[in-house]
Structure formats: C-alpha cells, structure tokens
C-alpha cells in the first residue's frame, strides 16, 4: 500500500470580485466580520516611500491595551459591562494562549464572550457549552459562548451567577488580555485597567523598500489572469521576504512568480501589527482608493489582513480552530477604477468565510 | 489537557545529554515527556535503575509558567514470554509500561493479555510478522496503544525504509486509531516539534486528524490508562512521600471511588474527572 501524498493540507478559499461603486458590494460586511486582526500588510508597486496621507493613516490606528494576568471573571464585572460592553464595541482577546493547547477567551463587540476550553476545564467550569465542531474521534475541545446582552446574563441573573461562580471559584482562569474599545478609547476601560498591571500599546508600523521585484502582469484584469493560489503564494513570498528566483543552485525555495511577469524597479512593503480594529481597516481602504485615484505608474495595491491564529472565533463569531496552521486572512487587490478582487482564506479547522 | 507529549526519550546514562534533551523538548513545545529505560532481559545488564531527581530545576516549556512534566517509562524488549513478568514489584516505580514484542505469538499475547500501556513497533528491522486485525482490535478495546518512533528514520536511510514500511503495515490494520508517535531520541538533534511530527504522521499513513491526535489526545489517554493500571482501576491511589518528587506526580485524576490513600499526607484533588 502506498500513502497518498498528493493531498496538501486543506484550506478554504473564497474569491470575490466586485467594484466599490456597486451598491451591493459586501466588502464592508466582510471586513467588519473579522473582529480580531493581527497584521495588515500593504504592497505598493513602483513606490519608493509611503505617501503622506497613507503614512499618517497607518500611524493613527487605534491604540490597544495589554493587561497582565487578568482574572477572566473581571470581564463579567457590573461596571465594566455597563460602561464598556453595553455602550459600544469592546474587542478583547487572550494573549499568548494557544488554541490547541490552552484555554482561549475572546470578547466580541456584539457582547458575546467566547471561551475555548479543553475537556477537563470544561467539565470543571460547569457551564453549558458545545463540543468543538472540529473534534476528530474524541471530543477534546469545548466551546462556551455566552451573550452578555441577553436577559439571563444581566448581573444578578441566573446564568450570570452560574458563570461568575464558575470563573471565580471552580475554574479560576487568569491570562494576559488584549483589550481595545472602539469609539471611546481607553476612558471607558479605565475602571478595569486601574485594578491590574496594564500597558498601552500603539500598533507597530514597519516599512521595507524592495528593488527589482518580479511581479505578475495585469493583476486586476477581468477575467483574472491567475488562479488565486499562485497569486497568493507569490504575494506571501514577497511579504515573507522569500526569493522567487527559483534558481537551480538554491534548495530553500522553489516558489516562482506566475507568468507572464514583469520586473518592477521598486516596491514598498508596509506592515502594521497589533490588535487592529475593523473600523481602522475600512478607513485605510478608503485612503487607498483615494491614492489610486491619483495618476500612478502601476494600477494596483495589494492589502492583506491577517487574523489572530489563536483566536477562538474568526469571521462572524464562528468557531476557529487550528489543525497545523490556524491561518485566517484575506487579501484585497484593489485596481484603479474602484474594482477589487477579494480572496478570503482559512485553514482546515475553520468555518467557511463569508 | 490536550497538550503535546513525547513519551519516548531514551535514557543513555549521560546526565548532561539528558538535561539538554529535556531543555530542547521544552523549547519545542512539549508539555510532558517520558524518559524511557529500555530493558533487554537477554543482555548482560540485569538491573535498571531510575535516575532520581534528574533535573533539580525543570525548564519551563515554551512560554508557559509551568515546568515540563517528566515521567519514567520502562520498555521490556521481549523475545520470550518469560521476559515480561506481570505484577512484578520492580515495575511499580515506573509511570508507564511498554513492551516490544519480537514474534507474532508475543505480539498476540501483549495485545490481549499483558497489563501494559504501550506496545512498541520495532523500527530497526523488517517485521517478521503481519498485524492481524483480531489482536489489534483487542488491544484497542483494552486501551493499549501502539507506538511508532521516528528518530531512527532521521539517523539512517535503511531504518527510514523499515520505519515507514512497518508503520504503514500497522495503519492498515488499526485504521489510525490508538497510535502514538514519539521520538526515541538519544540526542537533542533527533527531536522534532509537535507540528512536524504531525506532518510525519501523514507519511506513515495517518490522516490529518489522526496524526494530530497521535501527538496529543492519544498520549493523554495513555497517561490516564497508566494511572488506572497503577491504581487498580482507581481504587487505591499512592503518592511518593518525598516532597520534591511529589510535585512531579501531579496526576489529575481523582480516585473514582474515593478510596484510601496510602500515605500520611492528605492530597487535595485538583480536578474532578469523570472519564
């Protein structure tokens, strides 16, 4: 018997093609549904330095907070719920917890608290939950999803007290937590932050100028010249600084730029890392559309947004798991006449992107 | 906890080498490892001694606050049925018990009768027998797992062929259930990270999900099986009385029937398990 090695690790790819001017385009809802974004990378062809308005936009992403060793029951604190969760959008994610090894916690802007637990912890916590959709033979991961805006979860309600007792006495969970609040910034989170060791962080921007980059031609043509897989592989290689020469003397990488290709004399690669909000990403997309409106040498910009690998939720609050990679990201290739190609990718243990 | 485990690190007598091995395993992300003492009854050495308190300060594993958990394991290489003596007192000081049968009769006996946790599949030679469904299913029903080691494949190309051939034969019979993948590493360079071992499992004929389970949840079930075996189905629970290794025992299970504890210390149960 021979082993079938033709199967590469499975991934889900959804491609969408539309125009920003079309009234039924779904780009806004697709961007907003990915709540927890870790990294945004931009590839600007034929560009030596970041244009000023894009630069100021990138440097003005919302700040986020890191709280060390936050007991998770504090997220159920009455004052925190009233000042932050019920009012606007709180984005919270446990930091440095691995999705297939530890307990991961996410607080979504719609007031849902999601916990991804292993079997022992789930049994000790004693709150209603479901087995993970991605269990293979044995159920080893469980997901507890609680809507904090529901009537039973009002402070003092039955469900609320049960979860609070569970997190306080039966399973005292503590982890580092990333927190961000959309309209209000840090003011509404002050009550929670003041009790623990916290620090404020600005998303880190890094810029890298590339020279002599081989690039596929006519990227934004309709119908597209390339299949999404080869385009995304090329873009990923550029982002990760992997050579696409495919020279015979190098065994490190056999990735190659898809044909037909051209040579760009220069390109700019910009990336922003941190807990990034979808609203900031939407504003960035608007800025890039303005940039493309000006006369350019090249007519496209590629924007890639990566979600957190260890987040228990991905698009739309649906469950996210990690088989080996846990990747969930989307790439938006914007053309000069307000058209775009959107590719949404997740790994094997994930629900289909919208 | 479904965390990654490597249940086979060979003990070679070199303490510095062992310490480096444990540090590498912790760095790669394994939360639990087992030091394997291989005992061959036919060889000159009769005694196997456990190295007590191997590392005074166990290294923290990859970004966690808990140190890596180190267990002791005994592997008996059997070429005759008298080599494995059930209920021998020497076996009590080991957390895990494994056998490596070399003939078909011994394999059948190990699967159906012997009170062990792991059956090792030999990788240094082409197996002289085929795996039959009946003993393999019998072992699966009892909770005994089969182990495939990969470091021999790293060392030598002939052994690589034998490893893959034997592993594929095993997977045909057991359908990927009840298999663990471990390193049998003697040096730190022979260890691989958990996701790499998962990919290696694909080469051995396991599916994606099975390969990942072979490194985490099946290993966890081996540890629970070993505890049940040692505690006589959960009725009697013993704990070592010296204080520095009491922390290492760290067993999550509570005695099922809340039986007696053979020690003067009171042990506070940390997690209730109703497995």
Describe the 3D structure:
Chain B: It is found in: Nucleus, Nucleolus. Chain B: Component of ribonuclease P, a ribonucleoprotein complex that generates mature tRNA molecules by cleaving their 5'-ends. Also a component of the MRP ribonuclease complex, which cleaves pre-rRNA sequences. The complex is a heterodimer of chains A (354) and B (275). Helix content of chain A is 21%, strand content 32%. By secondary structure, chain A is an alpha+beta fold. In chain A, a hairpin with a 4-residue loop joins strand 5 and strand 6 (112-118). In chain A, helix 1 runs antiparallel to helix 8 (278-293) and helix 2 (52-59) runs antiparallel to helix 8 (278-293). Chain A is globular and about 65 Å long. Chain A starts with 11 loop residues before the first strand and ends in an 8-residue tail after the last strand. Chain B is of the alpha/beta class and 275 residues long. Chain B is built from nine helices and seven strands. Chain B has a seven-stranded parallel β-sheet. In chain B, helix 2 packs parallel to helix 3 (133-142) and helix 6 (194-203) packs across helix 7 (208-215). The longest helix of chain B is centred in the middle third of the chain and has 18 residues, at 157-174. Chain B is globular and about 45 Å long. Classes of the chains: A alpha+beta (354), B alpha/beta (275). The A-B interface holds A 1, 3, 5, 9-10, 96, 100-101, 118-121, 123-124, 136-138, 140-141, 323-324, 348 and B 1-4, 31, 63, 168, 172, 177, 195, 198-199, 202-205, 208-210, 212-213, 216-217, 220-221, 252, 271-274.
